Amino acid sequence: MSRIPSPGAAQGDPWAAPVRGLLLDIDDTLVDTQAAMRGSCRVGAAAAWPDRPGEVHERISDVFYDDPGGYFDAYTRGEYAFPEMRAARYHEACRAAGLPETGFETFEAAYREAFARSQVAFDDALAFLDAAAATGVAVGFVTNSGQEQTEVKLDAVGLRGRGPVVTTDTLGVGKPDPAIFTRAMELVGGNREETLVVGDTLPTDVEGGLAAGMRVAWIQRPDRPEPRNAGWGTPVDDPRVRIVAGLAEVTALLGPVVGRGPVLRP
């Protein structure tokens, strides 16, 4: 079916096209993953090292979350299986805390239980998804986490079934590989010019979305600590990127279903 060109498209305005598809990051965009991870790491560390003081548990949590060895990023490149990546991060944290590299199974079991009950969606997440549905915008989820962990998050906060989900396990690689965004776009339908990526992290969500030929709403929540490697405050000289303080700013840009359908207003 042919479409009428959007006003302003001839002048090269990347925001003139309507938004008919949303590809949403999950961690620290829809769900407060940083808080859940840090708290669950402390629980896991206390289970693995019950005779050590709280400062040691905090140290393990900090290093596991910060991941200075880059094991999670290596997982997203297909260099580690998910369990191996998790063990490598734990062992690195033990070394940093001056502990032997033992107790991973105990840590992981306690972490998983705590993580499942620690999931909290941001206050604007459900309203944003409802607004997208009301305006007829198709929604998909794109995350660098594994399939199992992602299902835990979506189930815990009531987001399962709100759209197709593409994880690192789907194609064996994660963001910023453009193939991840392309696959998600295919699942929700539409094309690159009418698809908007919403995420919090520069090297994965922003750079990956741009490499896939899409526009990006880069969320930087002022009331939350900056997530790992998010790159907030880094200048991005690309007109396809909008910085937003929350999902309500994206919701406000979705127009009503009139004529050509939902439109992202500049």
Automatic annotation (TrEMBL):
One of its GO terms (biological process) is small molecule metabolic process. SUPFAM superfamilies: HAD-like (SSF56784). The lineage of its organism: Bacteria, Bacillati, Actinomycetota, Actinomycetes, Micrococcales. This is Putative hydrolase. Gene3D superfamilies: 1.20.120.1600, HAD superfamily/HAD-like. It holds the Pfam family Hydrolase. Its cofactor is Mg(2+). Keywords: Hydrolase, Magnesium, Metal-binding. One of its GO terms (molecular function) is metal ion binding. Transmembrane segments: none annotated.
